[in-house]
Design goal:
Blueprint lengths: L7 H28 L5 H31 L12 H29 L5 H23 L9 H35 L2 H34 L5 H31 L19 E3 L2 E2 L12 H12 L3 E2 L15 E5 L4 H14 L3 E5 L6 H6 L5 E5 L17 H4 L10 E4 L13 E5 L4 H14 L9 H23 L20 E4 L2 H10 L4 E2 L9 E3 L11 H7 L5 E5 L6 H6 L1
Parallel strand pairs: 4-5, 4-6, 10-11
Antiparallel strand pairs: 1-2, 3-8, 7-8, 9-12, 11-12
GO cellular component, one term: cytoplasm
GO molecular function: cystathionine gamma-lyase activity; pyridoxal phosphate binding; transferase activity
InterPro entries: Cys/Met-Metab_PyrdxlP-dep_enz, DUF6534, PyrdxlP-dep_Trfase, PyrdxlP-dep_Trfase_major, PyrdxlP-dep_Trfase_small
């Protein structure tokens, strides 16, 4: 028996770290059941079994530590063999190890579609677990610990070497098949495969390093129990690796594969009828048609930022800003969807007549000619899309002269791009001053009548941080792109063109279309902004409803592509180049 610090000391370090890792397992288990309450019973049972096995291991390790430190205090001769509770912990930990390994081997089989590698790995796992059982039996039979026990030396040698080889083979095989599948996969699937590849390396390296460290210390340091420290940690690393992979697998699968319609963000459920757990008790919380629990906290938080008292978070308010048979004067530089709605939806469904004017340059006579007795709305968008021009309506004397009360009565925010969760739901928010109580009551009624579907704002803080990072990446990328002659203008305020605040890429029409389909990180879509980087061709996508003759006036042409920066950061510039 060597010095205590190199024998019992190492064992106690392993016990303490193992119990700490059990705490992490407990947190991951709690997060799993809270995040996936409707998951399959198999996975829920598996997670529960692993946690109970880890609990049993932690209890046995605690009892063994108490025996070694307290009960055997003053009796160093008793330390030549493990307490029975410590041996039991080794057995239970071995059950956790090989249960998780069996799941990883099954995952390898499902991913590879072949049995050539999973079957040998599975047989090796059964063999190694039988060695663990046999070692525990030998230890319980009062066989002393190594180096005084040749009976255990060969068992432990086979266990450590076999575990290290098995872990490396599982991780290496998964990485190989993921990379092989990636070369044959479609573009939209490569992001998921990249995530799986990185996570397989991370978890595989962690578990493999512990197994290799146990084997190396076992053969190189025969006079201490450093190997026991690593041996006692193996089960905790495997448990955490499995629990993490379950959570990451769900997130990656839902975000990268569950988009059969081609949606960049996974779709939400548009249903207004949901199963009730009991009479009047909805799974979604309070009945959403009468005001969800998410809407009101979001309204309070955002009102405090904007300084307004009355505002509404809905996806229906655009259709009720004007009554029927009314006249609207709109700036001509509006989003293509606004133009389409006013000309093809509101005009036919509500009898609304819209006149589009260049309000920045319109004269008194032009505005007077379009003034009607039934005019009840002047619509101005700032900044505009896709050129991001900022409105200077406060400096329009010709327009203000025709408005009895020259102030904005309603401010409409688009929540689609940012506040509402990066394009998950198309939505707007009209903001009213408190003296418009009558109109506010009307909107409250419509919220109930049309069953608006807002989104929560729990991720508001992370959105703010992400937005700052994206702006930094955009500025850095723009400095690179501005040096290229084919980028006629980079529309970011860092270059002094403050009336332009996004990146527009000018080129020939044929080149523009080819550019859209050749990028890897930028997804061709309506450039609404989001966590995914998007590239848009306004002439055919957002502004397809506008006559080509109007494009030049709006700064739009067949040679314009618009980039919307997501969270991919450094790789974006290289993707464009």
């Amino acid at each position: 028996m060597g010095p205590l610090e190199s024998t019992v000391g190492f064992a106690l370090c392993g016990v303490l770290i193992s119990i700490f890792m059990f705490g992490i397992v407990t947190v991951q288990t709690y997060m799993y059941f809270r995040s996936f309450p409707y998951d399959r019973i198999f996975l829920k049972s598996l997670v529960g079994i692993i946690w109970f096995l880890e609990l049993g291991t932690a209890l046995c390790l605690s009892m063994g530590t108490y025996t070694m430190v307290i009960t055997n205090f003053g009796h160093p001769e008793r330390l030549v063999r493990n307490p029975d509770s410590m041996n039991s912990a080794v057995l239970i930990g071995g059950m956790v190890d090989h249960l998780v390994k069996a799941i990883f081997i099954y995952r390898l089989y499902k991913f590879s579609g072949t049995l050539y590698i999973p079957i040998p790995l599975g047989l090796l796992s059964v063999f190694l677990f039988s060695i663990v059982v046999l070692s525990t039996v030998k230890a319980l039979e009062a066989v002393p610990l190594r180096p005084h026990s040749p009976e255990l030396e060969w068992l432990l040698s086979v266990t450590f070497v076999g575990s290290a080889v098995q872990d490396l083979m599982v991780a290496g095989s998964m990485c190989y098949y993921i990379q092989k599948t990636r070369k044959e996969a479609l573009k939209n699937t490569t992001l998921l495969l990249d995530r799986l590849f990185i996570y397989t390396i991370q978890t595989g390296v962690a578990t493999s390093l512990v197994a290799v460290a146990a084997a190396v210390s076992f053969f190189s340091m025969k006079d201490n129990y450093a190997w026991m420290m690593f041996f006692l940690l193996m089960h905790s690393f495997f448990s955490n690796a499995l629990l993490s992979s379950i959570t990451v697998r769900y997130i990656s699968y839902e975000q990268a594969l569950n988009t059969p319609s081609g949606a960049v963000i996974p779709p939400t459920s548009p249903s207004t009828t949901y199963k009730q757990n009991a009479i009047g008790i909805h799974k979604r919380g309070d009945a959403d048609e009468y005001g969800s629990r998410q809407r009101h906290p979001a309204r309070i938080r955002r009102c405090s930022r904007i300084g307004s008292r009355v505002w509404f978070i809905d996806n229906c308010n655009c259709s009720v800003l004007s009554w029927t048979n009314a006249h609207i004067i709109s700036a001509n530089d509006v989003y293509g969807g606004t133009f389409r709605y006013m000309n093809h939806v509101a005009s036919k469904g509500q009898g609304l007549e819209t006149t589009f004017l260049d309000l920045e340059n319109a004269g008194d006579e032009e505005i007077s000619a379009d003034t009607r007795t039934n005019r009840n709305l002047i619509w101005i968008e700032s900044p505009t899309s896709p050129t991001f021009a900022l409105s200077t309506s406060h400096a329009w004397p010709h327009l203000l002269a025709h408005i009895p009360s020259p102030r904005a009565n309603v401010a409409m925010l688009s929540l689609t791009k940012y506040i509402n969760g990066h394009s998950e739901v198309v939505m707007g928010a009209p903001i009213l001053p408190e003296y418009h109580e009558q109109f506010a009551e009307r909107l409250r009624f419509l919220q109930v009548a049309v069953s608006a579907v807002p989104k929560g704002s729990k991720d508001a803080a992370s959105q703010d941080e992400s937005a700052r990072n994206e702006c930094t990446s955009s500025c850095q990328g723009t400095r690179v792109l501005a040096a290229r002659r084919r980028y006629i203008r980079d529309l970011l305020p860092i270059h002094g063109t403050h009336s332009r605040t996004n990146l527009s890429h000018h080129m020939h029409a044929v080149v523009a279309e080819k550019f859209l389909i050749s990028t890897l990180l930028f997804t061709p879509s309506e450039s609404l902004g989001g966590v995914e980087s998007l590239v848009e061709y306004p002439a055919q996508i957002t502004h397809g409803s506008i006559l080509p003759a109007e494009w030049t006036l709006l700064g739009i042409g067949v040679n314009l592509a618009r980039l919307s920066v997501g969270v991919e950061e450094e790789d974006l510039v290289q993707d464009v180049l």
